[in-house]
Design a protein that fits this description.
mainly alpha
């Protein structure tokens, strides 16, 4: 029991450090932020928890491929219409036709986010918190979402909201549930959660070039 509380204290300290660090990087936007933030997400769990020494965590798994493919196709098919319906009808934004340069810039941002966000975030939240610290909390809710996935996703959304001081960022809770599901299906490996994270980021950056 003492070890369990110790693990949660370690996670809490790391989450506070990451939230504060991310907040100041987003506020002051200093040039080194693209290196410091991902480094912190890798270094902190390895430094705070000597029992966390993952192996083969980045390798793809046969078990997770079909789920990743089906969900990715569904998102590519259904998310864009929902995005435009929400922004044009409810947020009263205008539809624009972006130049090829704007689209390429959006894709570039998405690719940069692979190293800055997708890989380090999945390593920390799915690889460390979900599959290491909360590994035993695998009881399912409604036979779909495990407690460890739910708790990790709540933390994921909370950290994003605190880092940007924007409550709407807490909506990252929902894609986080999918990231966690891919990881569970892949028996703790994060290849497909990273892949879906990348797809989500690039798609979002591209869609935002079509509204103003």
């Amino acid at each position: 029991m003492a070890k369990k509380y110790s693990d949660f204290i370690k996670v809490f300290i790391q989450l506070v450090l990451i939230s504060v660090l991310s907040f100041f990087m987003n506020k002051y936007r200093f040039s080194a932020r693209h290196f410091i933030f991902p480094a912190a997400l890798f270094i902190l769990p390895l430094a705070f928890d000597r029992t966390f020494r993952p192996k083969n965590i980045f390798k793809p798994s046969r078990e997770g491929f079909c789920l990743f493919l089906l969900v990715t196709l569904a998102v590519l098919l259904f998310y864009p219409p929902l995005f435009f319906a929400y922004n044009l009808k409810f947020m009263h934004r205008a539809f624009i036709t972006p130049s090829s340069g704007m689209i390429m810039q959006a894709v570039t941002k998405g690719l940069i986010a692979i190293a800055v966000a997708a890989i380090p975030e999945e390593f920390f939240f799915r690889g460390y918190i979900q599959e290491h610290v909360l590994a035993k909390s695998d009881r399912k809710i409604l036979k779909i979402v495990s407690l460890k996935n739910l708790f990790t996703s709540l933390l994921f959304g909370l950290v994003h909201a605190l880092a940007f001081l924007d409550i709407t960022r807490a909506a990252t809770f929902f894609p986080s549930l999918l990231f966690g599901l891919f990881t569970e299906k892949s028996k703790g490996r994060i290849f497909y959660s990273i892949s879906f994270h990348i797809v989500s980021n690039i798609l979002a950056f591209i869609l935002w070039t079509f509204v103003e």
